[in-house]
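Schema walk-through. Below, the input block comes first and the output block second. Nothing else is stored per chain. Lengths vary across the set, and this one has 518 residues.
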Amino acid sequence: MSVHDLTKSIKNEKYFTVTWELVPGRGAKEDNIEAIFRRARDAAEEDKVDGITLTDNPGGNPAISAEYIGMKLNEMGIDPLVHFTCKDKSRNEMESFLYSLEREEVENLLVVTGDYLVSGYQGISRPVFDLDAVQTLKLISELNDGLEYKDAFGNPVELQATNFFTGCGVSPFKRLESELMFQYYKLEKKIRAGAEFIIPQLGYDMRKFHELLQFLRWRDFDIPVIGNIYVLTYGPGRAMNNNNIPGCVVTDDLLEKLAEEREADDNGHQASLDRAAKMYAMIKGMGFAGVHLGGHGLEYEDIQYIVEKGQELEDNWRRYVPEFDYPQEDGFYLFRRDEKTGLNTEELSPRTEKGKKTVGHRIFRVVHSLFFDPGGVFFRPSQKICQVIDESWAEDPLEFMERVIKTISNDCLQCGDCALPDIAYLCPMSQCPKNQRNGACGGSKDGWCEVYPEEKKCIYVRMYRRLKPYGQDELEEKALKYMPPVNWDLKQTSSWLNYFLGRDYAAEMKNIDPPEQN
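--- output ---
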């Protein structure tokens, strides 16, 4: 295996790529770490695997750096695919890691949000989530184009272009219409931001695999998709069924089958390999660009078996589709079912999830249309008033009034760069634990937030239901709008002043010019 074969193989439409996911753990020289290098060397000596995928602090736990492991594998001549997550790094730290990876020619990245943190030294670590996955992809795209910035003296500087090949994730295995559609809306934003390939979350419903390809064709995106296959046994299956591994879907029916399989002498190991081989055959048959193989404790011999058995079965892949009919109860599919194949037709399903016009949302809309919309009756007078108040004795009372109103309505944290108008008047800073400004993460289940299950609904499920009564055009316009990251220089300042005086993100995105100076 030579360096950079993975990039070429994913881009090659005639080639079926195979990656193997290895999971770094905590420590520097523990057995788990040594096993990663041993398994990677085993794969490098054979020809079944095109690249090694490395998770980044998996499950929200501390672990040895995926970037470091990627660099070491690269030195060994093994092409790595490094998970690059948003949960632990500020935007400055992201740049630092990216410059280091570029120098070491580690260029294949899978950019994902990352699991919410669950452990750390003497307690749970503070989550970062400074950039979301869409914003991170945009940062990397700008680095690839030669990032331009101004130095401390105001002089323009253009960096040398980097060569990253970036992919993204998506979770098509969502039960609710509102959850699923926001996964696809965010995927579209990721592609626009520069994603060049896709690896979906884990699931075992072949209609959902097929649906992802259909969605991309429907939206006219020509981008390779690597099908995700986890070699599933009862233990991990039970954790996924309980949503202990957020975003991975194992239904009750599938868990029952896994329980039967573990009664075998090998605890279900062979059954899990055969299931993965059938998925390999079906994923290849449907037109995916490759497979992403993972599983607890796998050795290279297991990967070899899956690939060889999958190739043996691929000519008859359609016969195995009925074995992977694991729909979620009342689950929504974007396309109607094809009864002949067990997959999907080209016909879109009706979107029947009901929205509701709430009193609070209506009030926000009316106030915004009058005062904050550049075409509103009171926009120019409000802008003039803010110009007078700015840096005067009245600024503190205005900030206090704004803080009281927004704390009552949205638990305002005073970021000063307010996104309320673009997210149906829901605050991503106070109401989303991951501060997602460009759409939902993949961790929700049945509409509930990954961090607060059965307690708080995902704000993007709420956004979908708030906007749906106002028509599909408005919903898609807001759902597909790119939201830049927070400018922390504005923290603890009045977002009203920042908005009207052209200091926040809206100045450029909504063409809000500051009023003329007296």
